[in-house]
Amino acid sequence: MPVPSPQPPVSRALLRDDVHRRVRDAIVDGTLGPGEQLRDHELAAWLGVSRTPVREALLRLQQSGLVAALPGRSTTVASLDTRAARDAQAVVAQMHRLAVHEAVGQLTADDLARMRAANARFRAALEAGDADGALAADDELHGIPVAAAGNAALAAVLDQFTPVLRRVERLRFSSLSGRGSVALHARLIDLCEAGDREAAAEVSHQTWQTLAPLLDT
Known about the structure:
Blueprint: H1 15-28, H2 40-47, H3 51-64, E1 67-70, E2 74-77, H4 82-103, H5 109-128, H6 131-149, H7 152-173, H8 180-194, H9 197-209
Antiparallel strand pairs: 1-2
């Protein structure tokens, strides 16, 4: 495995989560490509940690479908499994529907302003062909109602299954084909502001359903 460039020291207070996040993000952004062998000692050296949190991260990533492990043989970055991506997309869409349904009425004026600002950054990133910027803005926008909902179980499910979709989304957001999400985001925010719980939840679901055609190819 080619070792990526050095990374900042991992926070000891959040060691396990930081290690998991960094390895996950390297898989999602393509730094670690499909089929690439993952050696815990190399990852540990890259992150500046012991092997234990790396092994724990790889197990979590295996459960998410981003890593494939053959007992006694090797651990590799999983290829994109269309069935797994479809399953993840269905779950993620439903979880965001639920999050918005629970968040409407809890969102503050500042929350709504931050969602609008995130959507503006999302549009700008799409127009610039900046897939990473588009994903970061999309994460921020959808994360606001998730946080407002305050449902820890829902957040945990999204944390497990959203990364499976991110590799698909990077391809989508690399082109201008993601522009339709800008209008859906704006509609979502307006409905949240109006307090229309059912309609806002439905639009949130539609936003994530726009990924479905990519999973049929």
